[in-house]
Amino acid sequence: MIKLSGRLVCKNEDESDLVRQHLAEHMRLTKDEAGCVSFKVTATGDPLIWRVEELFTNKETFAAHQVRTKASLWGSETRAIVREYEISEVE
Questions:
Q1: Fewer Cβ close by (within 10 Å): the C or N end of the chain?
Q2: CATH number at residue 63
Q3: What are the tens digits of pLDDT across the range 9-33?
């Protein structure tokens, strides 16, 4: 399985508003993808930082998720937001 853990780090409240505005649909579409085991994006104590945890069945399903995400409304609206991610293979 492929695990992604990390953070979305917004520069300002406008970027954080974009996350709030588009997150529900992004989560719905991601959870509907083949190979998505779990997907969580949660607010933290800092209103500009969001915790991200993803788990996909394999490299192929994770790669397909990345392609879909980049081409989505979420991808275009949030592309300027800093992403600090670690990706690893887990059993």
A1: C
A2: 3.30.70.100
A3: 999 999 999 999 999 999 999 999 9
Tally the domains of the chain.
1
The chain-wide mean pLDDT, for the chain, equals 97
Q: Which amino acid is at 37?
A: V
| CB-neighbour burial class of residue 74 (10 A; exposed 0-12, middle 13-18, buried 19+) | buried
- For residue 22, the one-letter residue type is H
Return phi, psi of residue 12, to 5°.
-160, 175
Distance CA 23, CA 3 (A): 19
Q: Name every residue whose Cβ is closer than 8 Å to that of residue 35 and which is 6 or more positions away in sequence.
A: 56, 57, 58, 60, 61, 62, 64, 65
Extract the tokens encoding 73. 């409304």
